[in-house]
Amino acid sequence: MNSTTNNRMIFYLVAVVLFVGPVLLLILQSFSQTWRFQAGEGLNFQWRSYEVLLSDPKLLEASLSSIGIGAGVLLVNLILGISTGKALALLSFRGKSFVEAILLSPIMIPVLAIAMGLHLFMIRIGLADTLLGVILIHLVPTVPYSIKIFHNAFHQLGKHLFEQPLVLGASPVYQLFTVELPLMKPALRSVTFLTIVISLSQYAITAIIGGGRVITLPMIFFPFLETANASVMAAFSVWFAMIPLSLYLVMEALILLLPYSRMPWRNRR
């Protein structure tokens, strides 16, 4: 067995122990009564935890709101991240370092402080207690990461690669969908997962800007937490995890539509 095979086996083993194993335990806990390993008890499977979860009248509303907010935040992040990251990576101008520092500064300031400062402004312009207002405040902790990821992606590909389509007469839109986005698949996946997870995890700023009218899944999580029932909390966690996973699969399907993706019907002759 060579060193490459050994490294691969170590990687798979670490991945199973650190990532796959905890997820499987969480799913098993959601379908069983609270399991106490030290008591020597076995698993007693049941559906009660999901019955308690689905009996919450706000679960559907919170799930749909979370999906809508996550999708909206992701769309704006892609637009701002690609355009700003490309400009920072390919253009040279005076004060570029200062602009980069300003764009990344929101992640160095507590988001809660920014949300409290923007709350009065959003009340004045009518965005408080609205879905659009929550989407805008979720951009604060997500856009800097998107810009940084796309900035690094464009920088690694280099300026000359993106000059060739322009020399051949491609329009900016044609270049975006046939050259830039296909080359940016890893960055698109990273931004998708990171943005959705950060957005769905926001509780305090959603409560401040949403004013209790915009209900998301983190806001209905605490009543389940008070039950101290590990099975119910595990069921909620599994339900919660399905949203970013579903949005990620939607993004993967959209990526498959880009040129040069490996699709069965494109390989036919």
TrEMBL record:
Keyword tags: Cell inner membrane, Cell membrane, Membrane, Transmembrane, Transmembrane helix, Transport
Entry GO terms, CC: plasma membrane
Transmembrane stretches, start-end: 9-28, 62-80, 101-125, 131-150, 191-216, 236-260
Major localization class: membrane
Pfam families: BPD_transp_1
Domain ABC transmembrane type-1: 63-251
Family, similarity comment: Belongs to the binding-protein-dependent transport system permease family.
CDD domains cross-referenced by the UniProt entry: TM_PBP2 (cd06261)
Protein name per Swiss-Prot or TrEMBL: ABC transporter permease
Topology relative to the membrane: Multi-pass membrane protein
PANTHER family linked to this entry: INNER MEMBRANE ABC TRANSPORTER PERMEASE PROTEIN YDCV
Subcellular location: Cell inner membrane; Cell membrane
GO biological process: transmembrane transport
PROSITE patterns: ABC_TM1
